[in-house]
Amino acid sequence: MMSAEQTARYVPDRLKSPAARWVKSWESLLIVVALAIFLVNSFASPYFLDPWNLSDASFNFTEKALIAFAMALVIISGEIDLSVAAIIALTSTAMGYAAQAGFDTPMLVAIGLATGLGCGAINGLLVTGLGLPSIVVTIGTMSLFRGASFIILGDQAFTSYPASFAYFGQGYVWWVFSFELALFVVAAIVYGLLLHKTNFGRAVYAIGNNATAALFSGIRVGRIKFILFLLTGLMAGMASICLTSRLGSTRPSIALGWELEVVTMVVLGGVNILGGSGSIPGVVLAALIMGMVTFGFGLLNVPGIVMSIFIGLLLILVIALPIVYGRLSRRWAKGAA
Amino acid sequence: MLNMLLRSRELLLLVAIAALLVVVTWRFPGFITLANLANVYNDTSILIILALGQMVVILTRCIDLSMAANLALCGMVAAMLNFYVPGLPVLLLVLIAVVLGTALGAINGLLVWKLDIPPIVVTLGTMTIFRGTIFLLSGGAWINAHQMSDLFKSLPRGIVAGMPVLSWLSLAVIVAMLVVMRRTPTGRAFYAVGGNPHAAVYTGLDVGYTRFKAYCLSGGFAGLAGYLWVSRYAVAYVDIAAGFELDVVAACVIGGISIAGGVGTVPGAVLGALFLGIIKNALPVVNISPFAQMAISGTVIIIAVAVNARAERRKGRVILKRAEHVA
After folding, report:
1. Do A3 and B124 touch (CB under 8 A)?
2. Which of A99, A262, B181, B317 matches a 20 to 30 Å C-alpha distance to A51?
């Protein structure tokens, strides 16, 4: 995105064995971290290993993770969408408005998804149609969308939602598995297949690595980027339905600051912020890690803002460590040779 | 032609500001009085100082999203020192705020310089860390007006030669930045590093070190703004200036500073900040709900970046004309 310098790459003359690659991969590191946090949490608090508590804990990350999947694709393609939290606010406001006008649940869901799609389309048009840098465009639309929500609501709140609307954020599919958790699993599978098993996914990687080369090899760069912004809007709309249903109310300040948590989740999941690489399993693991850290700290009565220090440190460390490790190992390799 | 375009950038903004003033005056004639405009300037001073710091960082192809959190942390430290160590002179507190801000900026700069971590990730991370640190320091408690010494609160309000000290300070920062950006090697280096990092290396500039300096500068300005903010509003708590980093970036974008680096001027950043400041101050006067301010600044950002992009595109060379048409 911003720093364009590319250092010379080390190109090996043969591939490492698949097993060695897997052991050294980012995802396996995340698995170790996740397991460690899980163990520490279960020793630190006797309440951690309760299925219902764990189920409650999943609400910490499911809504953010829904957006993170689409955001991962956007970031892999070399763009970014900072307006997602504002889309949640505007979508929630639109649904609250409709609920007050007497619409029932199916219509509310349709309005929610449509508003999300509409916001995504605006971002997509500005970025691909006018060729503007996405980081500035989405900072602008972030103010615009949340601002529209403020204009409609001011210091008021929508609180009258139909009873059946509560299912999306409070309902359970089976035993302790909430609707949100099920949606999270489905979305993870869908986005995993989309990114890793389809032409579309390959095109996303190609664009992120070299948009010009992708264009010359016949990929419709603009169209794919537009679709990615649409998807992000759609997922933000979905997250908004869940969040609004769970809270049962809409304020303009709903989901404030979520864009940063979503980006953190994506980057923690091993997606290169400059585009071109990353995977959905990584994002899933990052979501689990962030959810468990938040929940574990919550059980230990650590205030939310102290957790955010930890998340911030985690974000910098997970990016810094591989860089430091890479440098040291190169130095050692040089010393040996 | 190129020079004209660049120059007209500030001219365009001036025209936009003038048009804005005309509209506001048409609805409410009292707005255009000298006293009121001086008030608006004073009210925008902190934003101007921050925007100039952010400008330097953006010029070098980086971004500093931690500015508002840095401001809040330095403001809180100054306020707490003022409360718990009553004997300290206020000027020393200001100095401490500036030094602390510079040090926090240096952390950002070191991470970008030495570890090559993308600036947006670094400053997203330090943003939450700085905010969290305020909570750790203050325990979530507020420092209220009655806990601050009188001089601590009144320093930026003191009137010197008809204007508050706050306004004079921001004017001093503007003048200093004009000199630095136009008349010193460091200022030229900021442009060179952002305009073409590779070429900068070949001319003997250290790209990483220049970025480090940019972050120190923006940190120092954030520290100064931290003291000014806390003393002006006479309160310090964890969430002061939350989200203000986006206003600062917005001021820069409106002022014609290219997010791609290397393009932008001090007058542009100042005018961009003033544009936002005038909107903020004019809305209540013309009976538009202050809740509309966010949506308006969002729209302005989008328009500004669209105008910027058009101005920049003309500079590019089209090497493969046919291919561009296909796209």
Report:
1. no
2. A262
